[in-house]
Amino acid sequence: MFTNKLNSQAVITNKRVSKLPHALAIMSTSLMIGLSMASMSAQAAGLGELFANNGAAKSKFLPVDKAFQVISSTKATSKGTRLSINFDITPGHYVYKDQLTLSFPKGVSATPFTFSQSPVSIDDPTFGKVPVFTQKNMVATTTLTTNNGKGAKNAPIIIGWQGCAKAGLCYPPEKIKTTVDIAVTRK
């Protein structure tokens, strides 16, 4: 697609300078292509400064998997299956409380999350005043059940969350796909 844009620009340029000698038209087209490539190289270099680029440059920000280590675990209970999502948060980073979500198949329900830590309120440049977790470790817990009370094997669950670096970078929303065996509920 990028090549097509360059080619169409080259055609337009050639039409505009059709009265000039053919060599001058080719040189101006080459100059436009060269400037476009230089711009792309500058953008790539800028991204390389944000995140480590093969260790060649010291990164200002950690990759998302280094800033946040997220692990989920489950435990069968008489009320269903307890899903725990453990966040190890690197100092200088935070996780949005309200961006923690679960997606699951029809026929599965989840209780509201409970948290091992209390969130703090910050004035976030993206979302305004919001609750976030800044502690080194935070665990979000919910209980999953089936609507018919029967168990379910390998129910697909998607955990959504988002975090930021206090230094000024919000990572894109993350999704973790997993499967969960949902225990039979007993009364």
From TrEMBL:
Top-rank taxon, per record: Bacteria
Signal peptide residues on this chain, from the entry's feature table: 1-44
Keywords: Signal
SUPFAM superfamilies linked: Thiol:disulfide interchange protein DsbD, N-terminal domain (DsbD-alpha)
Domain Thiol:disulfide interchange protein DsbD N-terminal: 59-179
Cited InterPro entries: DsbDN, DsbDN_sf
GO biological process, one term: cell redox homeostasis
A molecular function GO annotation: protein-disulfide reductase activity
Name of this chain's protein: Thiol:disulfide interchange protein DsbD
Species per Swiss-Prot/TrEMBL record: Psychrobacter immobilis
